[in-house]
Amino acid sequence: MAHSDLLTVPFAGAPIFTRSRALRPTGKVLPEHARSHNRALVLQTLYSSGARSRADVSRETGLTRVTISDLVADLIAEGLVVELGQREAARPGKPATLIDVARDAFQIIGLDLSEHEVFRGAVTALDGTIAERIELARGGATGEAAALLVEQLVDRLLALATIPVLGIGVGSPGVVDPLGVVRSAPNLGWVDLPLQARLAARTELPVHVANDANVAILAEHGETAPGELLLIKVGHGVGAGLIVGGRPVIGGGFAAGEIGHVVVGTDGGPRCACGKDGCLEAWVAEPRLTAQLAAVGASRGSSVGAGDGDTDAAAAAARDEILREAGRRLGIVLAPVVGALNLTEVVLSGPADLLDGAFHEATVDTLRQRTMAELNRDLRLRMSEQAEDIVLRGAAVMVLSGQLGVS
């Protein structure tokens, strides 16, 4: 399925829907869409549940045995489904032949361009297991130099692939449209960079590019599959991914989740890469917090009596206050979103040493102070358990969803 299918455009001049298609098929559809949808439904059933007989798939999908037989024959011919042999007979009669997704037939290339100092890439199996990984130091590269570094990373990953590659998934910071054009990524100096088309022309493979937070939430959704989920990605910048009713929210201008450049409060604040003062990203992004904490350590270390208990306690208190202030700023931005959508779960993704502690506590406290008690009673703010691989795994989900209709 082409990446442009992620949005629905009914006719020229009509508004673009702000939510994409569902990540996975759940039932039968209208006749004119039936074959492609039912094909994805078969693949999703096998991908999620494992080896099944054709009769099992028919029962679980509600499709007729004739339809299943026809679809499976095509999928086997394409190398996407394999026969595993006969099931051990539990009753009289001919044992059923088991089929499954050809899990070892393809690999996926995933890229994470969201970090401050490195570009990450991985070769993954269809189930998201990482077979090979590469990190390239960014060295402050921006503009064309950063784009060339991405191409170099892709070339090296393709050289490590041991079987055919199903596609390439890329999580990029900034505003990314459905055609994979990075319309704006201030931290990388990219404006209207056609990254998807550029990589597709270079590799002759399907390429899917999306905002890094929108990619990360695909991995989290794959683990928990809730109806509604908000994920905050903190790295070189700050972004959010949102799934409502099982569908990623993209926005009419493709910038849903761009909370990093929302100005927090009216008291000014640090200068942001976008040129404004006091953006959430200027308060919360990893480079800013790391630099502030390092400055506290340096100033305390050079002070008279450095190393004694009082100085150490003062330094720890100063570090905690920096993290609390950043957490408060995030909570201020999140409160209206949580209240408007009645969300019960928010996930933080980023460096645990910064986000899990004083920062986390201050964010929760601010959210509770700024939303109705009846609405926030069940609110849960948690750290993602997928650590630094969340965008790489989400990139694999994006390729699976785009190419096979499964997740």
Determine the CATH superfamily of the largest domain.
Answer: ATPase, nucleotide binding domain
Number of extended strands: 16
CA radius of gyration:
24 Å
Largest pleated sheet: 5 strands, mixed
Low-confidence stretches: 1-19
Percent helix among the residues? 40-55%
**Please, how many helices?**
13
What oligomerization state is this entry in? single chain
CATH class of the largest domain: Alpha Beta
> What class would the helix/strand composition place it in?
alpha/beta
**Beta-strand content bin:** 15-25%
Widest sheet: strand order?
6-5-4-7-11
- Overall geometry: globular
N-to-C CA distance: 13 Å
The CATH architecture of the largest domain can be named as: 2-Layer Sandwich
Instruction: Look at the structure and give the mean pLDDT.
Output: 86
Number of structural domains: 3
- Could you give the order of the helices and strands? HEHHEEEEEHEEEEHEHEEEHHHEHHHEH
Q: What is the CATH topology of the largest domain?
A: Nucleotidyltransferase, domain 5
